[in-house]
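Module 6 notes. Inverse folding takes a fixed backbone as the condition and produces residue identities as the prediction. Think of it as a translation problem where the source language is geometry and the target language is the twenty amino acids. Below is one complete input and output pair. Work through it position by position during the lab.
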């Protein structure tokens, strides 16, 4: 009996589409960028003042920060923006935005990176096209969005709104991203990694048309002072097959260390 081949034409949610169309982006090595938000500033001042775009860039992940991941900077065309995301339920909007890699509320500056796990094709894949196709889809890709807010109160509010939405929208809802309607059948809180001053995490079950059961998308967001990091991850194989995947906690841990 022939093996099932994952269809490449299935309409992924907006984030998945963005991630899959830009895996070959230019690697970011912006850690050498100079900025007025440098480490010489007193710790109290650094915690109080929101980072500028240049400051966020100096804190963003680079290609040398995390082993086993390809880190790149998405182009303007590849980046989902708030105006491209619409929720039928306003109380669920924080989930829709964070799933799409969009910062909540009104940040003063944002910087975004993409991190795709490196995975070798299984042995003998050159003789098994199906195995090679499955391996290509079974790769977790994440969007990491850093957002600086006017003060800690604003950053705390943005993070707290995610937790409130997880509770309010646990039974699922529908939203539109990049013109495509997405149906979430369930939203559940996860145990967030220890990162920054506080953190939240959740998994959303996404029902794809023609698929037998929903597949997961996962988000972890954490706050360090006036900066919030949003990490949204998807694994196309799990999304299509309705399976599960391991959230790349190392990305959160590494980003938290850089934000300090």
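Target side of the pair, the amino acids:
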């Amino acid at each position: 009996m022939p093996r099932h081949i994952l269809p490449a034409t299935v309409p992924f949610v907006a984030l998945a589409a963005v991630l899959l169309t830009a895996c070959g982006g230019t690697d970011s090595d912006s850690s050498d960028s100079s900025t007025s938000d440098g480490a010489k500033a007193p710790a109290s001042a650094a915690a109080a003042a929101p980072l500028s775009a240049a400051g966020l860039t100096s804190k963003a992940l680079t290609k040398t920060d995390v082993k086993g991941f390809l880190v790149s900077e998405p182009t303007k065309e590849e980046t989902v923006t708030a105006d491209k995301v619409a929720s039928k339920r306003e109380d669920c909007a924080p989930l829709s935005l964070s799933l799409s890699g969009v910062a909540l509320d009104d940040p003063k500056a944002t910087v975004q990176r993409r991190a795709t796990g490196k995975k070798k094709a299984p042995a003998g894949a050159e003789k098994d096209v199906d195995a090679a196709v499955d391996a290509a889809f079974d790769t977790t890709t994440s969007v990491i969005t850093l957002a600086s807010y006017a003060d800690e109160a604003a950053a705390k509010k943005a993070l707290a709104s995610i937790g409130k939405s997880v509770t309010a929208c646990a039974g699922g809802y529908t939203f539109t991203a990049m013109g495509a309607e997405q149906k979430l059948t369930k939203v559940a809180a996860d145990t967030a990694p220890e990162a920054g001053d506080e953190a939240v995490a959740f998994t959303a079950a996404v029902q794809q048309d023609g698929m037998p059961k929903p597949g997961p998308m996962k988000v972890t967001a954490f706050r360090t002072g006036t900066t919030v990091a949003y990490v949204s991850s998807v694994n196309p194989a799990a999304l299509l097959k309705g399976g599960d995947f391991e959230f790349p906690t190392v990305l959160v841990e590494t980003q938290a260390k850089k934000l300090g």
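Reference fact for the lab report: The beta strands are 69-72, 85-87, 109-117, 141-148, 173-177, 180-189, 198-207, 215-224, 227-234.
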